[in-house]
Specification:
By secondary structure, the protein is an all-beta fold. It has one domain: Beta Barrel (Maltoporin, Chain A). 3% of the residues lie in helices and 58% in strands. It contains four helices and 44 strands. It has a 25-stranded mixed β-sheet that branches. A five-stranded mixed β-sheet has the order 3-9-10-7-8. Strands 14, 16, 17 and 20 form a four-stranded antiparallel β-sheet that branches. Strand 11 and strand 12 form a beta hairpin. The longest helix has 6 residues. The protein is globular and about 85 Å long. It holds the Pfam family Plug.
Length: 734
């Protein structure tokens, strides 16, 4: 990485937006090693977002707290105010997208069993104790998906009483109401209880538009009101209206119970529930005819003398309504056996029911034929893990994993696409698939001296899969695929060296992988005279990562860090054109990502803290048999540069935060098609600034005021991000 040249001075002025307090070296992480580890001794550059830091920010979803993490780019920087996306978890970590990053809740995967989607909506934010983000290759501990790193959402324990009632009111593009009730307690009989309920309502705001490009012939009907614009590629176009406000509601509930077997062991179990719904409001056409009447459909019109433009009422329609519900149940044991073996056993099952309707040919905004698409999936995770001291030098972590996933996709015809119950006939299209992964992992923490530690480990994963898919009518097919299997071995070696008390140096090398998901294996589609074929013979994507770095705790008020890394990714899955009517998923690509992250945290005074960070990500497609023209291009959704900074203060009963982040523009695909920016459908560079101030009225009552997008930037990440908006919040604790 010859392009990387840094000086000590540069390190001193860069920081993680959410690094831990400099003076508190006792903070620990559990994600990097699966055991408690002081951050200064960790074999990776861990970012910990504490509960206090969560409270400092205007967080509606867990993803809102990730905005400032070094090397992480959120697809929607204000995700908690957006309605788009069934997964609601579009991001990249060091150039690896959500499907190539392991996202966990208390160590259990959050990704669905359908298409490796991550839905941050499913986690009750009031129940989050902290979030640990550990970049780098971690398939050696966590298996599939952990190429870019691991995001572990750690929930609260019922080890102390807490009851909170929270009400939030949003204004502007955040208009709506939030209400939450959260309670936890631990009783003398050894029983612990956690109960949480929340509801979020958003009125929505206009963020999607109808944009039409003139043809080559003259139009017949003159109209006015179109707003000149361009397509993302720069072609002349007109914004002819918007798709209205997309209102949404979200309900969350969680119940957890624990029982202390003794002072070191407990049984636990619980259930988490989430349901999310959207509702598209009326559209707005900006066009008027010569009599001043609204024009919402016309096959040959001319806007202020333009060439022919064709418009249909259905051009204003989104996929609607969307409904997604998820239920996760779990039961487990955590404790110490024979005063030596720190053991965890857990079984968790997650079920996701996702459905939405789509308009069909000839449909209007409000009625007409269409389809209902159901995408239910399930995942079952079983973990058995223990850690123990083998000798004075060796601390062993070993475990077994079993993960079973299943999808059962169905498509039904509707007589009215706005009525999800107007089903006619049986399913016309479907895909079924199931995959089972069995794993064993081991890690040896070898303390060669008080200042030099080696972490050596690996994981073997073997998965089996089988499935089928079908379609009746036009483009019919009916396929059944035999069971097949594949495997991956993911070794990793890390070293941590403390040459002096205030400096930590790290280096690591590891392999990681991502198994193809059930949708890639079996989710064939037929559209527009083309078969978009799945491929039951796909191989896992595999990667090799090298990293060096460290941190310097210069004083009790200053901590700086640097990480340099390189990842080579092979057997990337792309859609490959077979012929004029067939496109098939294939292990067609290779890519390389290398970069640098600089971090620092400064306590300016006893009440004022400054965080800054800088990330440089150099990504390049090295090979793509599906589309050779993309070789040399950047990876999709990966910015080259990101800056972030946060100034937080706590003085008396007042506390506040101002945070800002800059991100380069990104490309939506590896084709890196030209993007003029600033128009609907583009992916803009942005500088986003948010602020929040809190005031403690009395011991049990706190009020806050937040302003997101403080400078009211107009930013598109395909759709329009919220403009400046205000949120007021009242929190009662007793």
């Amino acid at each position: 990485m010859s392009y990387i040249k840094i000086s000590l001075a540069a390190v001193l002025f860069c920081s993680s937006a959410y690094a831990n307090e400099v003076a508190d070296l006792g903070n620990v992480s559990i994600t990097a090693t699966k055991t408690e580890q002081a951050l200064s001794d960790s074999p990776a550059s861990v970012t910990v977002i504490s509960n206090d830091e969560l409270k400092q920010r205007n967080v509606s979803r867990v993803s809102d707290a990730l905005l400032m993490v070094p090397g992480l780019s959120m697809g929607t920087p204000m995700n908690g105010q957006m309605s788009q996306g069934t997964g609601a978890g579009s991001f990249t970590l060091r150039g690896m997208n959500a499907s190539r990053t392991a996202v966990l809740v208390d160590g259990v995967p959050l990704v669905d069993g359908f298409a490796s989607k991550v839905d941050f909506r499913t986690v009750l934010t009031d129940d989050v104790e902290r979030i640990e983000v550990v970049p780098g290759a971690f398939s050696s501990l966590y298996g599939s998906n952990a190429i870019g790193g691991v995001i572990n959402i750690i929930t609260k324990k019922s080890n102390k009483p807490e009851t909170t009632v929270r009400y939030k009111r949003g204004f502007g593009d955040a208009a709506g109401n939030d209400f939450a009730l959260y309670h936890r307690n631990h009783y003398e009989n050894g029983i612990g209880v956690t109960l949480g309920l929340s509801r979020e309502d958003r009125d929505g705001y206009v963020n999607e538009f109808a944009v039409k490009t003139p043809g080559t012939t003259a139009g017949i009907t003159p109209v006015t009101g179109g707003i000149p614009t361009t397509t993302p590629a720069g072609a002349s176009a007109y914004t002819v209206g918007d798709k209205g406000e997309m209102a949404w509601t979200q309900n969350n509930a969680t119940l957890k119970l624990t029982y202390d077997l003794d002072s070191k062991s407990k049984l636990y179990g619980g259930i988490n529930y989430n349901v999310y719904k959207t509702d598209q409001g009326d559209f707005h056409s900006y066009l008027r005819d010569s009599s001043g009447n609204v024009v919402s459909s016309n096959t040959s019109m001319s806007i202020d003398g333009s060439n022919k433009i064709s418009l249909a009422e259905s051009d204003f329609a989104n996929t609607s309504p969307l409904e997604q519900g998820s239920t996760r149940v779990f039961i487990g044991y955590e404790g110490e056996i024979a005063n030596q073996y720190k053991t965890k056993m857990e079984i968790a099952k997650a079920k996701i029911d996702n459905q939405y309707t789509e308009k069909g040919t000839g449909a209007t905004f409000y009625s007409g034929v269409g389809t209902r698409k159901e995408n239910p999936s399930e995942a079952i995770d079983i973990l058995l893990q223990t850690a123990f001291a083998l000798s004075d030098m060796n601390y062993i972590t070993v475990g077994l994993n079993q993960r079973n996933t299943e999808l059962d996709r169905k498509v039904y015809n509707l007589t009215n696409w706005r009525d999800e119950d107007s089903v006619t006939g049986s399913a016309t299209e479907g895909a079924y698939g199931k995959s089972a992964t069995s794993s064993i992992f081991i890690q040896d923490e070898i303390a060669l001296s008080d200042t030099f530690t080696v972490y050596a480990g690996g994981r073997y994963d073997r998965w089996e899969t089988e499935g089928d898919n079908f379609k009746i009518g036009t483009g019919a097919y009916d396929n059944t695929f035999d069971k097949r299997s594949d495997n991956a071995f993911s070794p990793k070696l890390s070293v941590v060296y403390l040459p002096i008390e205030d400096i930590t140096l790290r280096a690591s090398a590891g392999k990681s992988f991502r198994a193809p998901d059930n949708y890639e294996l079996y989710g064939t589609l037929y559209c527009c005279s083309t078969y978009y074929q799945s491929n039951p013979n796909l191989k896992p994507e595999v990667a090799t990562t090298y990293e060096i770095g460290g941190e310097w705790r210069a004083t009790t008020d200053l901590k700086t860090g640097v990480s340099l890394y390189q990842t080579t990714l092979k057997d990337m899955i792309y859609g490959k054109r077979i012929d004029a009517t067939h496109q098939e998923k294939s292990n067609a690509g290779e890519a390389r990502v290398q970069g640098i992250e600089l971090t620092a945290n400064v306590n300016l005074t006893s009440w004022l803290n400054l965080d800054l960070s800088y990330s440089y990500i150099d990504s390049e497609v090295l090979k793509n048999e599906a589309d050779p023209t993309t070789v040399g291009n950047k990876l999709a959704q990966t910015p080259t540069r990101m800056w972030s900074g946060a100034l937080s203060a706590k003085y008396g009963n007042w506390s506040g935060l101002v945070e800002t982040k800059y991100s380069d523009e990104v490309f939506s695909t590896e084709s890196n098609a030209a993007d003029v920016g600033g128009v609907f459908g583009s992916y803009d560079a942005y500088w986003m600034t948010n602020a929040k101030v809190d005031y403690v009225i009395n011991k049990g009552l706190k009020a806050s005021l937040s302003v997101n997008n403080l400078t009211d930037e107009t930013v598109y990440q395909y759709s329009l991000l919220p403009g400046r908006n205000v949120t007021a919040e009242l929190i009662m604790t007793f």
